[in-house]
Amino acid sequence: MPPVVLVLSAVVSVQFGGALAATLVPQVGAPGTVALRMVISALVLWPVVRPRLRGRTASDWRIVGVYAAALALMNLSFYESLARLPIGVAVTIEFVGPLVLAAVLSRKGRDLIAVLAAAIGVVLISGALWTPWSELDLVGIVFALLAGAMWALYILAGGRTAARFAQLDGLAIALALGSVVLLPLGFATAGTTLLEPAILLKGLGIAMLSSLIAYSLELLALGRMSAGVFGVLLSLEPAVAALAGLVVLSQTLSPIQLVGMSLVVLASVTVMSRRRCAEPQDGG
């Protein structure tokens, strides 16, 4: 499967998982939601992948450790920002991370223009321009910025993890490492509510869509494309999130938000078309 298709499939999966998570955060909080995602994902993926642990170098463990930390902190800080900010504002601020990374890593003028178009589109989709500043929470803004920084680190660390670990070994190990840290935090904040059947069922759905399927596809793609291209392709996430919000949460888009979505899609198509032309020269 082409890496572009892998990334787009991951975007759809993670955003519909995010729409489902929006119904769980009010019940168990951000730490509880992230803990359920990572623990269930680790329990499902580990016996399937059975990652090789022996023979790993200290460098391997450092890289996968950074990947695990980025994965856990990215999700935890984003959900914490959602508890304090409008979701459109939080997504816009978070997206600064991968957009800046794509701009820094890209050496093509057309990619830089695409990043700018995607940035404008993300702002229009989010509605951040017309959200009163009096409604913003500085703590929420800090959490959203942290989520964006961790998203950029996740992209970089994911590429190195994919290069060091076969297939999904790195993801399985990272999920297990993150679970060890987040599970106690989840129980400390949500208690035994995490064990209720309805909560576990939602957690399973979120884990499959937002973590297991999405991160597996992203990790496979990161091993076959540059971090810059990957970051710009992720600019589709706000548009897909809007679609998921419409289908799952009955949220609608204004005309100016549709303009923003068009800009984001155009930016992504620009990058995909350049990547397709270059791929025959990559030698597989």
- Amount of beta strand: under 5%
Which structural class should the secondary elements be placed in? mainly alpha
The shape is globular
Based on CA atoms alone, the radius of gyration comes out at 18 Å
Count of discrete structural domains: 1
**How confident overall, as mean pLDDT?**
82
State the helix count. Answer: 12
Q: Can you summarize the main beta sheet?
A: none
H-E order:
HHHHHHHHHHHH
* Share of residues in helices: over 70%
Unreliable stretches covering 5 or more consecutive residues:
275-284
> What distance separates the N and C termini?
12 Å
Could you give the count of β-strands?
Answer: 0
Short characterization:
This protein has about 280 residues and is mainly α. Helices cover about 80% and strands about 0% of the residues. Helix 1 (about 5-20) packs antiparallel against helix 9.
